[in-house]
Fold each of these.
Amino acid sequence: MRNVILAESAGFCFGVKRAVEKSLEIQETYGKKIYTLGPLIHNNDVVNYLKENNIFSIELDDIDSLNEGDIIVIRSHGVPEETIELLNKKNLIVIDATCPFVTNIQKKVRKYSDKGYNIVILGDKSHPEVIGINGWCNNSAITTLNGEFDIEVPKKVCVVSQTTEKESNWKKTISNLSFMTKELLAFNTICSATEVRQKSVLELSKNVDAMIVIGGKNSSNTTKLYQIAKEHCENTIHVENSNDLPKNYIENANFKNIGITAGASTPDWIIEEVMAIMKNGLK
Ligand code: SF4
C-alpha cells in the first residue's frame, strides 16, 4: 500500500488566495468583463478558470485597447509606481491586489532611497515582483541573483529580497555586502509562506522515495521547491497538473512513500487530483 504525504504547507499562499478572491469578487460586483495586468498567477489551470469567469489577462503594451471605466486588477507581485500612475491617467478603475508583504517592500524601498540609500534587491531582475519593487526607487536598484556582485557596490546600501528567495542566498548577500559597504541596512523580506514551504519540503523530501512538486513551469517559488526537493530526493519531478504525471512514475512499485508539495499558485483541486492518482493509479 502506498503512502502519499502532502507537505505540511503547500499550495495557495495568503497573497495569491487574496488576489484570486478579490478578482472574483470584483467581477461579480461589476458584472462585466474585467482585466488583470498580466496573468494573475503562474498557473494555466487557474488562468483558464478565471477566463471562464470573465476575468482576462492583458499586457501593459495593450492597455490602450481598454476604455475609460474598465476595471484592471494589479496582481500580487505588484507593479512599479509609474504603472499605477499610467493606469490612473487612463481613467481605468484600478484594483490593487498587490500582496501586502510586497507593498511593504515597495514602501521600504521608496522610503530609504529617498533617504539616500542605494537599493540592492536579491532576486531575479526579470521577475515582475523585482521589476515592480525597482520601480519604487526610480529603477535605480542593483540586483543580485545569488548574493554575488560583479560591479562595485556603493558604500551606503539598503538591501531587500524578492519574497520567494532562499535563505541561503540571503545570508550570502549579507555576508558579501558587509565587506563591500560602510553602512548597511538589511530587511529580510523573504515571505514566511515561502520559508515555511521550503522547510517542510526539505524535511519531507529526506524521508520519501519520490517527490512531486506541483506548480507552473514559470513559477519561481515552485522552481525553488523543486530544487530543494531534488537535492534530497533523486526521484523528484515537477508537474503543472495531473496530466503531466509520467505513467512509469505513477506505476513505479519502488515508490512506497511519495511526498507532494505545491507552489503558491497551485489551487487545492489540482493537488487533490495528483494525490488521488498517486494513491489509486490511473482509472
Ligand atoms: S508568497 Fe508571500 S509575499 Fe508572495 S504573494 Fe504569497 S503571501 Fe504574498
Amino acid sequence: MLEMLLARRSCRKFEDKAVEEEKKEKLLQAAQLAPTGKSTRPWEFIVIENKETLQKLGNCRNPNQPFLPETPLAIVILGNTQKTDTWIEDASIASIVMQLEAESLGLGSCWVQIRLRESNQGMSSEEYVRKLLGIPEHMAVLSIIAVGYPSGIRPVHKLDEVDLTKIHTETY
Ligand SMILES: Cc1cc2nc3c(=O)[nH]c(=O)nc-3n(C[C@H](O)[C@H](O)[C@H](O)COP(=O)(O)O)c2cc1C
C-alpha cells in the first residue's frame, strides 16, 4: 500500500483511450466497498463518457478545469443529505478509494472539487453540475473523479515529504 501511495499522483493528462468496462466496474465496486458512518451508504455515482457532456463539465469551476473535456471517464460522486450527516466524509472516502483502485488498475485519476466551489457560469459548481446532469436536490455533489490512462511521466512522492513535526506522542 505504501508503495502505491508513493507512486500515486494526480493525473490531468490522459491517453486518448477508453477505460475498459471491466475496469470501470471495478472502480464502482471499490467505491461501494468503502466504509460509511453507521453503514448508511449514502453515495450515488454518475458515470460520464459522453464527449459533449465532458466538454460542458469543464466549466464546472472558475477558472475552468481544462483537463475534464480531455478525460475519457468522469465519475461524479453524490451524497444523499437526507440519509446521514456524514455524507461529506462518506463521499470523500468513496472518492479516494476509487482513486486508489484506479491506481491499482494502472489508471491515473484526479479529484475535482465541486462542493463549496464556483463554476464559470455565474452559479456554484454544484448548481451547474446539478442542472447539467439532472441531479435531484437531496443529492449533494461532492466531487468529480477524472479517470484514464496517464499520459507522460508523473514524479513519484518521496518518503522525505513525511513531516515528523505533525506527529505528536501521547499529548499535543
Ligand atoms: C479535497 C480535494 C480537492 C481537490 N480539488 C482539485 C481540483 O478541483 N482540481 C484539481 O485539478 N485537483 C484537485 N485536487 C488534487 C490536488 O490538487 C492534489 O491531490 C494535490 O495537489 C497533491 O498532489 P498529488 O495528488 O499528485 O499527490 C484535489 C484533491 C483533494 C483531496
